[in-house]
Design a protein that fits this description.
heterodimer; A: alpha/beta; Rossmann fold; B: Alpha-Beta Plaits; 3-stranded antiparallel sheet
């Protein structure tokens, strides 16, 4: 038994009251300290927290930022997003590999540097990007990649990789990141200034029921993608039985191509905190949890300071804003790398310290959420909107946007355009107008809502962005005429395969099967029947999957089958008859041929051609 | 039944349920069979295999987890749902390495029986031929992951019925697998051959050693009657374990 490990693990667990509910913090700390959570550490944690060791092992194996094997002192995570690939991520991976003498997924023999691929880290507008430990490195090139390795080799200090600081609070001493906000269009809801406590004071002057009424009157709907009416969610949670309730903020912005929450967290954390406190007041909660994705760990110290400043100003804590009996505080819960945790019930599972599996519904979080208590889970942007509703009034908010979709929406725009970045636009804006603003008029295809959304063609560019037409949680990826739509689809499927939690059959297996067939078509070996096969497979996965991941993962394939049919048709094998022309008998026999040392008598090449 | 009785329909047949019952439980009592694999009477609902997917007022739901509610219209035995269920069962076949012709569980296997019931011939999907590890460390029980369908029946039975925790899940997505509660094989756990966990396995994955092929062909559970026929005959509410 390693005594240093034993002592450290015991201390880490004890600091958390040996509470298995704090498992995410415990395993994250052990990982940070020992660069991995070894089998021995798993045993120690299990003993300390009185849980089965297999449950601890299950958590460690679930999250991408955790590992049983020891990682390097520095871990380089290169973003594998489709946009990053368009901008040369593969060449950068090669440069890293060459410079380090290791492959992706490996650690240098001296145990110093690990090199890995990672899914979208919310930097698509400054791609290609990587995280070096917690430090984001943007606009990479092969040259920069080589310099980066040289710097690490010399100093082993990721913070030295920040050549120049980004704009706004990215330059704050507690952030110190080279990340750029790239806010291209400022709107009245999210990016307008807010005096401290301005929204909260107005809310606290009303009754909780009146606050909820205002949010309903404003017709505010969830900004994460699903678009559920926020006021109704709050009302259900308020009405649910139980004295202890929670407010959870979903800052696990994992949908590829989305990065607007990162900008809100950087520039408007106070607006977010006000929105969470207002939700707490409305539903009767005294605790809020900000679930921050591991990729945004570089913002943590800054956000902690914001919360501390608000506590000192009486805007969090006991008797908030002087309102007797209203106590509310916010703590940050770090994630550990799992797209699925953006699904609200998975996020709750993760907060509870377990594998990030979605939960069965019903019960819904409003009835039984975090630790079995009624819980509101909203997106970062939704809380900000709610705060603004209370500050400026429900009528003011409702008149923005379009009839079914009130207010503004932050769009994260990336890909083939001149001005990638964050745009606050009113709902109802036509996609053409957005493309014009971003300088992406050449677009062949636009991915609206990320891989779980849809891929639209020019025929849809005149449609408005809103819940009833082109719905998006914020991701808008633009692809020019030179891009291969099928390559994008295949890439998204790779993403879903990796990020599926594996709980239910259709998603766990179906995504793998979809990818196999799309790849076959891309390689020119598909046949007409494959299109019907894909259509049925996609519908089965959508219908039968347990949560939003599988219910949407076929979307890129299904939407392109309709809108980019020629991309599929043009690659199909031309069939002379009903037989399976895509079946290659020689390839199928290759192994037998090798074992036997002779060719098939029946299917020898000559006979075939006779 | 009391005045709290819930009334709803499954394929236009009126069904009654008590408050708190799931659609599947109510269906079972009404002698209506909804195909299922991960569900097992006596264990908490899990909702993983998705074979029991039904349409509730047009929306897909797993009937093993969805509570019965007054007036809901449930679609179960339609062609559309049959196709979806067949697709799912075929997915389970190609995901693992299933060789019915020489599997000890053949004839008593719920996956195989479901394949027959749903009219599955050769799976339409390509086989994925995964490499999976066998755990034969325990003297009386082995885990053959090639045949595992990740239904968690063993995991739930161990915790809920045996009062143990011999197994759990590791990994995610296609890498998800059952693993013993030890870093060194099932033998290092307190698993016992009489555990409910062992009997709960619907396939040939968690198996007793030295009893393979014990039942002659012709006398096996599904040799003469398809899976679910006990429910349809109204004879009993199912417990798939022997």
């Amino acid at each position: 038994m390693d005594e240093t490990l034993k002592k450290a693990v015991e201390e880490i667990c004890q600091a958390r009251g040996n509470d298995a509910g704090a498992m995410m913090d415990i395993v994250r700390q052990v990982q940070a300290r020992f660069r991995g959570v070894s089998e021995e550490a798993i045993d120690l944690i299990a003993a300390q927290c009185h849980v089965p060791r297999v449950d601890v092992a299950g958590v460690v194996s679930f999250y991408a930022f955790l590992s049983t094997a020891s990682k390097g002192q520095v871990v380089i995570r290169l973003c594998d997003d489709v946009i990053d690939r368009m901008y040369g991520a593969v060449a950068i991976a090669e440069a890293f590999s060459h410079e380090l003498g290791i492959e992706m997924g490996q650690t240098t023999p001296d145990g110093k540097i690990t090199l890995e691929w990672a899914p979208c880290m919310g930097l698509s507008d400054q791609a290609p990007a990587a995280l070096v430990n917690d430090v984001p490195v943007t606009h990479l090139s092969t040259d920069k990649a080589r310099h980066l390795i040289q710097s690490l080799r010399r100093y082993m200090d990721p913070s030295r990789l920040v050549e120049r600081l980004g704009d706004g609070n990215n330059a704050h001493e507690l952030v110190g990141a080279m990340v750029m906000n790239n806010v291209r269009k400022v709107g009245p809801v999210i990016f307008a200034p807010l005096g401290p406590g301005e929204a909260m004071k107005k809310a606290l002057a009303m009754s909780p029921a009146e606050v909820i009424r205002d949010v309903k009157t404003a017709r505010l709907r969830g900004r994460g993608g699903a678009g559920f009416p926020t006021g109704i969610k709050w009302e259900f949670t308020r009405a649910a039985a139980g004295s202890k309730k929670y407010v959870l903020c979903n800052a696990d912005e994992g949908e590829p191509g989305t990065f607007k929450d990162r900008v809100i967290l950087t520039e408007q954390p106070d607006l977010l905190a006000e929105g969470m406190a207002i939700a707490g007041y409305a539903i009767g909660a005294d605790e809020g949890i900000l679930y921050l994705r591991a990729e945004y760990a570089y913002l943590r110290r800054f956000l902690e300071q914001v919360l501390q400043r608000r506590r000192e100003a009486g805007l969090l804590g006991k008797d908030v804003c002087g309102k007797k009996g209203f106590n509310f505080d916010i703590r940050i819960q770090m994630g550990a790398g799992a797209y699925i945790c953006g699904e609200e019930t998975s996020l709750i599972s993760s907060c509870e310290g377990t594998r990030g599996d979605p939960k069965n519904r019903p019960p819904f979080p409003a009835q039984k959420g975090y630790r079995g208590c009624p819980t509101v889970v909203n997106n970062v942007e939704t809380f900000c909107c709610a705060a603004r509703v209370l500050e400026k009034g429900a009528g003011w908010f409702a008149q923005l946007g379009s009839p079914g979709s009130a207010g503004t929406k932050l769009l994260s725009i990336s890909g083939d355009c001149l001005r990638p970045g964050v745009y606050e636009v009113e709902f109802g804006i036509k996609l053409t107008e957005v493309l014009r603003m971003a300088g992406g008029q050449e677009a062949q295809a636009v991915v609206v809502g990320g891989p779980s959304g849809q891929i639209v063609s020019a025929a849809d560019f005149e449609r408005p962005i809103c819940y009833d037409h082109l719905a998006t949680g914020g991701s808008l990826m633009i692809f020019g005429p030179q891009r291969d739509v099928l390559e994008i689809v295949e890439h998204f499927l790779d993403f879903f395969i990796e990020e599926s939690c594996g709980y239910c059959t259709p998603c766990r297996v179906g995504n793998v099967l979809m990818k196999e067939r799309v790849a076959r078509i891309r390689s020119g070996k598909g046949e007409l029947a494959d299109l019907g096969y894909l259509e049925r497979l996609g519908q089965t996965i959508k219908t039968a999957s347990r949560c939003g991941l599988g219910q949407t993962s076929p979307n890129p394939m299904l939407s392109t089958l309709r809108k980019f049919r020629s991309a599929y048709d043009s690659r199909l094998v031309q069939q002379a008859g009903p037989f399976q022309s895509a079946f290659d008998i020689q390839a199928a026999l290759a192994q037998a041929k090798e074992v036997q040392g002779r060719a098939s008598v029946l299917f020898s090449g000559e006979r075939h051609h006779r | 039944m009391s005045d709290k009785t819930i009334t709803f329909t499954i394929d236009e047949v009126e069904v009654k349920a008590r408050p708190g019952q799931t659609i599947m439980e109510a269906a079972d009592e009404a002698a209506i069979y909804i195909p299922r694999l991960c569900s097992l009477k006596g264990l908490s609902p899990f909702g993983a295999c998705r074979v029991c997917t039904v349409l509730v007022n047009g929306r897909p739901q797993s009937s093993c987890t969805q509570p019965a509610a007054p007036g809901i219209v449930v679609e179960n035995a339609s062609e559309r749902l049959h196709d979806i269920r067949q697709d799912i069962v075929e997915m389970l076949f190609v995901e693992g390495n299933h060789f019915c012709m020489f599997c000890e569980k053949s004839g008593n296997c719920e996956l195989q029986a479901m394949g027959y019931r749903l009219g599955m011939m050769e799976p339409k999907y390509p086989r994925l031929w995964p490499r999976r590890e066998l755990d034969a460390s325990h003297p009386d029980i082995f885990i053959d992951r090639d045949r595992c369908i990740l239904c968690a029946r063993c995991i739930r039975a161990s915790r809920e019925q045996d009062g143990k925790h011999i197994l759990g899940f590791l990994g995610r997505g296609p890498h998800k697998r059952v693993t013993p509660d030890s870093s060194d094989g099932l033998v290092q756990t307190d698993a016992a051959v009489a555990d409910a966990a062992v009997a709960a396995c619907p396939v040939g994955s968690l198996m007793r050693k030295r009893v393979g092929f014990g039942i002659p062909i012709g006398q096996r559970k599904y040799d003469h009657r398809p899976i679910g026929s006990d429910i349809e005959s109204g004879a009993e509410v199912p417990d798939e374990r022997k």
